[in-house]
Amino acid sequence: MAMIVHETHWTKTTQYADVVLSAPTYLEKEDLVIPWSHNFVQYSARAIAPINDSRCEWWVMREFAKRLGLTENWLYENPWRAIELAHENAFEEGCFEELRLGKMLRLKMKPKDCYPTSSGKIEFYSTRAEKMGLKPLPTQVSLYVGEEQFVLLTSATPKYTHTQFQEVYGPIPPVVTINPQDAEKLNFQAGDEVMLANERGHVQMNVVVSNTVPEGVVWCPRLSEGLAGEPQNGLMSSVPQSIGSGPRFNSTKVTIQILTE
Q1: Per-residue DSSP letters for 9-48?
Q2: CATH class of residue range 4-106
Q3: CA angle 166-168-174, nearest 5°?
């Protein structure tokens, strides 16, 4: 079994790949911009032709299909024809041809007084769960944190998308931010090398002292590596959360030990 990665940038994932296929950036391919927070949609023309031999996602998957001997017609359908069919009767005014010519269109929206709830209204608690005899609101489960433990939180930083753009901005900083009160208790100074550890592994980081985190909590940039190249995710549980099946990035507990004096 081989690991094949289709990417625009060198990332941590590409380092594990057996084969890396070059993908075009958003400037090198046609695309359709589908919004998250409004209903305007717009065609995005490519600014330049691909600089190297990069290929779009649909081209790569079609070539895989050919080599695997797959013959279903939908695998070889024109991608823009497929998108046009998917957006049939989806716009308030205008048509797909106008969209391709550069006109900004608006997607149709459901009536503002129509909600996919059992009551048909905005619900601040689940009436369906209540009827089933369940609690209508999520229950906050207390996280036991030992006397010498901290809750480790991670989040994205402005310069990086996951592990992308490190070739532009340099490595994601191997730092851990700690509250001044906790730093004083542990006799930590800014720049100290410390080890974050739990039953799953350990990561070495440099200390940053800041009031941006509360006492009992430490923070690291998402997907950063330790000073010795240890993956931060080695501290995280692989068991998903009960609600939503998301990763347990908000319930990781670690101890911190100084490595330098």
Answers
A1: S--HHHHT-SEEEE---TTSS-EEE--SSSSEEEEE--SS
A2: alpha beta
A3: 35
The architecture of the domain spanning 149-258 is Beta Barrel (2.40)
Decide if pLDDT at 261 tops 60.
no
C-beta pairs of 107-112 under 8 Å, 24+ apart in sequence:
107/39, 107/40, 107/41, 108/39, 109/39
Buried-exposed string 240-256: b where 16+ CB fall within 10 A, e elsewhere: eeeeeeebebeebbbeb
Domain ranges of the chain: 4-106, 112-139, 149-258
CB 161 within 8 A of CB 167: no
- pLDDT tens string 115-131: 888 888 888 888 888 88
pLDDT in tens, 23-57: 999 999 999 988 888 999 999 999 999 988 999 99
The pTM of the full predicted model, rounded to 2 decimals, is 0.68
HSE-CB of 239 using CA atoms within 13 angstroms: 4
Hey, is 242 helix, strand or coil? Answer: coil
What is the C-alpha to C-alpha distance for residues 178 and 157, in angstroms, rounded to an integer?
Answer: 17
